[in-house]
User: Which sequence fits this backbone?
């Protein structure tokens, strides 16, 4: 008689798949439990009521989901760059890089904005965040225009640089990407396009905002070009010292600035849900850990090579996000639209990749 307790091949495969996913997301789950527990404790200490505690707990959860939805494309782009980095630099990015992402962008960055905008000291900014969260949120909201302009131009250069590549031979939306690839031989065409968009959006700004938008957007463009040049110099120096080394310090710096640009929208948008800096840091920090886990999984499982259009979807999402950040200087666009839009583009790209694999016997 057959033993009914014997697992089938299908159940073995499902168990192995679940174990594999758990291995990648183990630390993210641990941070989620600790972060939500800390959020509940913070809620109890600040409100002293069960309702207030549950509210803070819920806000932390929503912020984590918001960060994950906004950062699907960030994880894919990180994996795209990481696969060409040396193992040593991969480990550095996935350890030191995540510390910079969580503590630098989710805590230090909002404090730094208030320090500069309000012309106060760092400790005064911390006190302001704890004692007067409404005033803190107001200062952050006023700083939204230059942040959106800077982040929008930087991300636009990231997206355009992927498509304006004369060596790129895999095209998803062929009627667009074929023309772009042929135009890639024109030097500086991406910079020209971004500058034209900067000029166009700056002219649409209200009086007094035109110079602020233009200056911040140009600095975003300059930052991208500086990181590219510096990265090339640093990595070429490493290659001269260590033959075969690829994607070293320059790639690390590029990924850190890229992560910062992705974080701008989430950090500013988070103040619509909570004015408490520490609640925001907990929620977005949890989300950042899932982005790290997704990045590791994409690199180790070779997902980008298995699904040929996944990168395309991510870079289209980046271009869409950059345009949304520019548009946010004129109108309010809910973060849920930004997150769902990017996730939708990646989902369509994944579906197209699956269809292509089936049609070509992969």
Assistant:
């Amino acid at each position: 008689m057959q033993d009914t307790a014997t697992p089938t091949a299908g159940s073995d495969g499902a168990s192995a798949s679940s174990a594999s996913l758990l291995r990648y997301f183990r630390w993210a789950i641990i941070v989620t439990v600790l972060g939500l527990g800390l959020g509940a404790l913070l809620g109890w200490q600040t409100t002293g009521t069960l309702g207030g505690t549950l509210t803070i707990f819920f806000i932390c959860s929503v912020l984590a989901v918001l960060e994950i939805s906004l950062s699907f494309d960030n994880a894919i782009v990180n994996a795209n760059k990481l696969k060409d980095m040396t193992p040593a630099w991969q480990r550095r990015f996935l350890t030191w890089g995540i510390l910079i992402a969580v503590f630098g962008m989710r805590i230090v960055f909002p404090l730094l904005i208030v320090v500069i905008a309000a012309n106060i000291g760092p400790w005064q900014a911390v006190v302001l965040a704890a004692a007067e969260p409404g005033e803190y949120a107001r200062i952050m909201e006023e700083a939204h225009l230059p942040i959106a302009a800077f982040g929008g131009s930087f991300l636009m250069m990231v997206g355009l640089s992927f498509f304006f590549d004369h060596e790129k031979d895999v095209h998803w939306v062929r009627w667009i990407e074929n023309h772009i690839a042929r135009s890639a031989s024109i030097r500086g065409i991406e910079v020209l396009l971004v500058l034209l968009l900067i000029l166009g959006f700056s002219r649409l700004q209200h009086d007094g905002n035109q110079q602020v938008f233009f200056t911040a957007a140009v600095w975003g463009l300059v930052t991208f070009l500086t990181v590219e040049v510096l990265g090339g110099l640093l990595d070429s120096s490493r290659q001269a010292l260590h033959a075969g080394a690829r994607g070293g310090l320059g790639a690390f710096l590029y990924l850190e600035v890229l992560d910062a640009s992705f974080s701008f929208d989430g950090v500013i948008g988070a103040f619509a849900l909570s004015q408490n800096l520490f609640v925001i840091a907990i929620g977005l920090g949890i989300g950042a850990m899932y982005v790290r886990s997704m990045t590791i999984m994409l690199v180790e499982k070779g997902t980008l090579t298995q699904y040929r259009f996944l990168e395309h979807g991510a870079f289209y999402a980046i271009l869409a996000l950059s345009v949304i950040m520019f548009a946010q200087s004129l109108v309010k666009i809910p973060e849920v639209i930004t997150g769902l839009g990017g996730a939708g583009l990646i989902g369509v790209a994944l579906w197209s990749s699956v269809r292509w694999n089936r049609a070509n016997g992969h």
In short: Residues 9-47 form the longest helix (39 residues).
